[in-house]
Design brief:
The chain has no helices and 5 strands. By secondary structure, it is mainly beta. It has a 5-stranded antiparallel beta sheet with strand order 1-2-3-4-5, with no helix packed on it. The chain is globular and about 30 Å long. The chain starts with a strand and ends in a 14-residue tail after the last strand.
């Protein structure tokens, strides 16, 4: 599930898609967010921003190892 056309404070753009955190990403959240089940992250290349579903100001950045990778070059 995705949220489209959301604002990302890291990217400073209003056209970002967000998806729920997956797998090991949950281990990279700040301690104050541990135990939550409503965290979503920006899917833009290089972004690490995550936030509760409707509470942007309560977001944070995932650890560097969870940075979104660059898109694969065209074949």
């Amino acid at each position: 599930m995705f949220f489209a056309n959301k604002y990302c404070p890291t990217c400073k753009k209003y056209d970002r898609e967000f998806r729920m955190l997956e797998g090991r990403e949950w281990t990279g959240v700040e301690p104050r967010h541990r135990g939550r089940t409503d965290l979503w992250r920006c899917t833009a290349v290089g972004c690490r921003w995550y936030q509760p579903v409707h509470h942007q100001r309560d977001g944070g950045r995932l650890l560097e190892e969870f940075r979104n990778p660059a898109a694969d070059p065209p074949a």
